[in-house]
Design brief:
There is one protein chain. Helices cover 42% and strands 14% of the residues. By secondary structure, the protein is α/β, with parallel strands linked by helices. The protein has one domain (6-460): TIM Barrel (Alpha-Beta Barrel), CATH 3.20.20.70. The strands form 4 sheets. It has an 8-stranded parallel β-barrel, surrounded by 5 helices. Strands 1-7-8 form a 3-stranded antiparallel sheet. It has a two-stranded antiparallel sheet with strand order 4-5. The longest helix is centred in the first third of the chain and has 22 residues, at 94-115. The structure holds erythose-4-phosphate, phosphoenolpyruvate (PEP) and manganese (II) ion. Residues 85, 132, 248, 279-281, 303, 334, 366 line the site of phosphoenolpyruvate. One of its GO terms (molecular function) is 3-deoxy-7-phosphoheptulonate synthase activity. Pathway: Metabolic intermediate biosynthesis; chorismate biosynthesis; chorismate from D-erythrose 4-phosphate and phosphoenolpyruvate: step 1/7.
Amino acid sequence: MPNNFIDSAARLGQAGAANYPGLDAWRSLPISQQPSWQDEDVYQASIKDLSSLPPLVFAGEVDVLRGRLAEAAQGKAFLLQGGDCAETFDAATADRISARVRTILQMAVVLTYGASLPVIKMGRMAGQFAKPRSSNEETRDGVTLPAYRGDMVNGYDFTPESRGHDASRLVKAYHTSASTLNLIRAFTQGGFADLRLVHHWNKGFTQNPAHARYESLAGEIDRAIRFMEACGSDFEALKRTEFFASHEALLLDYERALTRIDSRTGNPYATSGHFLWIGERTRQLDSAHVDFLSRVRNPIGVKLGPTTSGDDALRLIDKLDPNREPGRLTFITRMGAANIREKLPALVQKVTDSGAQVLWVTDPMHGNTVTSPNGYKTRRFDDVIDEVRGFFEVHQGLGTFPGGMHVEMTGDDVAECLGGADPVDQEAFLTRYESVCDPRLNHMQSLEMAFLVSGALAQASR
Ligand SMILES: O=C[C@H](O)[C@H](O)COP(=O)(O)O
Ligand SMILES: C=C(OP(=O)(O)O)C(=O)O
Ligand SMILES: [Mn+2]
């Protein structure tokens, strides 16, 4: 992340946020997917703590990201957004975080090299701790308990104690986000992301076809760097990289308590992450989530599923991006491979005709979830790739820019999605399925996807 934001950090004030007009309007609007905290005192104390803790991100960084996303909306950059479906407190370790960051860096290199286009790197990381669920409850062997809603709300263990909604977890989520972000900043600014380590990022991952292909690409990059160095170029820009943090803005009490006023501009910023998105389940026009996110200056996203109409999209633009500011609003479509070619064109056409310039991103995960015959929530790699292909085809057909990709992935060698070049089968789920919510692409499947997308992106950016 850029280093020149100390000033805005000092200026981000909590005092002003307490009375800022409109920031609490959401409280009187319909709201869904919120916890029922079991202890009011713990809840009040947690919100008080969060309100006085330092911001996790700074307004200046958020503004930089808005600028980068504006470039993507104009076809001059590509957004790569990836990470766990649900981060957990236990997995916030150096090894797990570095594997994920490395995988995103590797995917970004593949995309940048293949398409000659800047790639904006963004983790579903350092705050992705709250989950919307289809059902409030989960039943196992005749026992029914509250559903797991992310580590910010309750525990994954299937016991009544663990599944109770405990507001002290809000504060733990903040601190876990802070330490995750600290490590990400150290990695991406402190030498780990130096492009001269392009080979090194591949170390420690299992040998597989994508690994081998990556090695050969890394060799080409090495040669190009050595050539440029021999020509006397100083590669300061290659030594570090920007990396942004994002999560679904689901628990509005948490988001509101971390909202601060930037005294440079007097505008409110959600400081829990650089980029926040509204989920498919909470994007109703007159809902609390849409209202709250309409009032912060961060770039924001909205997930759009297959039932979204062109009018829904236009109304969301009017509410969330009334000034039609490129970079402000990202539509993350998650139609499903079977629907995208049929449903996406009308949506994109309507938005384009309205003159709005949103950033279009594909989430090829959430419309392609199935249950495996042996009972695991999974996705077929081929369906995921098919949705990405459909996304590129639709945009190519309309002359619009396919500006990014949003994936649930990890740097670990898990078995959660079926298929890939070194195919994962359902038997592997028995020993290597680790996700507490949705299935993620493993390291190799993530790299493989980057290789498949880089060709399509090269064509789109020509
Ligand atoms: O990540 C997205 C949702 O939280 C998740 O897909 C919901 O899953 P469920 O249908 O098992 O509740
Ligand atoms: C909840 C999620 O997705 P969606 O809102 O698209 O279902 C998610 O991204 O984890
Ligand atoms: Mn998910």
